[in-house]
């Protein structure tokens, strides 16, 4: 927990999760100090065996290491999808920068959206260590050959949506991403530590927006409730299909890219939100949500996975708008990239020029 300017349950919206990020960071340092399992170059160890030994020893795989092609491809797909989500995710909230209700809210939202651009950059940089260029990845996004999170294909209809996105969408993102701080691929794990620290702040700002609205006038309270009603199930869907239908999970767990199943993480998120909704004085739109004593967890209604599949396939409320906007931004920014390249080339030429 970062402060106490509004009442939250004991360990706050992201307090417990942030502790896990700190622990992952400490584990990263301990593993580095412990050193990697020995490899005698002369003994001609099978690279696959050494890769497995590194994973078993909870050491990180680094860009210089040999890795199975499928591991590399899985990581590129996952990191790229993650990077694209950060960038496309700037749009729904960017929609409210010019209409934020006060200068303070505007400054906070601007900083948040800017953070997301930064997350995109860390992640593209992490993907590049796997031998793919950022240009290639952006091209694949624009051509619809790589995905971004389905959640960003929903519209932001009111100011309260900015709060609901921070609380629920950034909240679901952190629950998903905290275990990635222990991912076996070093550059991804390190990027995630930094990202999760910022995401927990995003979640808190969303929670605070909703807290103010929920405690305001009847109209403001209704607006907050309406936003939560609309974002709840799409947020649950962010954890992906149920475990039985999840295609990549098993192998990703064996490689220690992924540490928990989709359903485990979804449950964790639900349990966290119920308590927080209570503090907000808002209701989660699920009449079947109730504590299950024997499971020590909440029973809840699953999101509509058929809808998730439709949105992933391109038929969500805003898919076309998001990609059109991204293509336009890419085209509008072409001159900046060209100018930066020309400037870099000029500087390089100046540096190598032999003084007369
Ligand atoms: Fe982010
Ligand atoms: Fe965020």
TrEMBL record:
It comes from the Bacteria. Residues 26-48 are annotated as: Disordered. Residues 31-42 have a biased composition (Basic and acidic residues). This is Phenylacetate-CoA oxygenase subunit PaaA. It comes from Plantactinospora mayteni.
């Amino acid at each position: 927990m970062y402060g106490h300017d509004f009442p939250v349950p004991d360990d706050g919206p992201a307090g417990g999760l942030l502790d896990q990020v700190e622990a992952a960071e400490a584990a990263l340092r301990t593993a580095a100090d412990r050193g990697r399992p020995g490899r005698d170059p002369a003994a001609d160890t099978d690279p696959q065996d050494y890769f497995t030994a590194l994973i078993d020893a909870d050491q990180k795989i680094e860009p210089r290491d040999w890795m199975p092609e499928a591991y590399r491809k899985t990581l590129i797909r996952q990191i790229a999808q993650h990077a694209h989500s950060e960038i496309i995710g700037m749009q729904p909230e960017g929609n409210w920068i010019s209409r934020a209700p006060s200068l303070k809210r505007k400054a906070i939202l601007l900083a948040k959206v800017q953070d997301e651009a930064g997350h995109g950059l860390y992640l593209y940089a992490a993907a590049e260590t796997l031998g793919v260029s950022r240009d290639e990845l952006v091209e694949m996004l624009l051509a619809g050959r790589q995905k971004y999170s389905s959640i960003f294909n929903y519209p932001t209809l009111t100011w309260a949506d900015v709060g609901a996105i921070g609380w629920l969408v950034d909240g679901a993102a952190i629950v998903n991403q905290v275990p990635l701080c222990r991912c076996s691929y070093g550059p991804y794990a390190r990027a995630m530590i930094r990202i999760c620290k910022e995401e927990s702040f995003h979640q808190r700002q969303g929670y605070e927006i909703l807290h103010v609205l929920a405690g305001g006038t009847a109209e403001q309270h209704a607006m907050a409730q309406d936003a939560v009603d609309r974002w709840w199930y799409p947020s649950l869907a962010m954890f992906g299909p149920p475990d039985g239908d999840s295609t990549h999970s098993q192998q990703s767990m064996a490689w220690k890219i992924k540490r928990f199943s989709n359903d485990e993480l979804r449950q964790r998120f639900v349990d966290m939100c119920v308590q927080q909704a209570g503090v907000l004085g808002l209701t989660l739109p699920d009449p079947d949500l109730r504590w299950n004593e024997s499971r020590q967890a909440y029973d809840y209604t699953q999101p509509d996975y058929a809808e998730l599949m439709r949105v992933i396939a391109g038929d969500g409320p805003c898919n076309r708008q998001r990609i059109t906007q991204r293509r336009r931004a890419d085209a509008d920014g072409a001159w900046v990239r060209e100018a930066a390249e020309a400037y870099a080339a000029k500087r390089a030429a100046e540096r190598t020029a032999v003084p007369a």
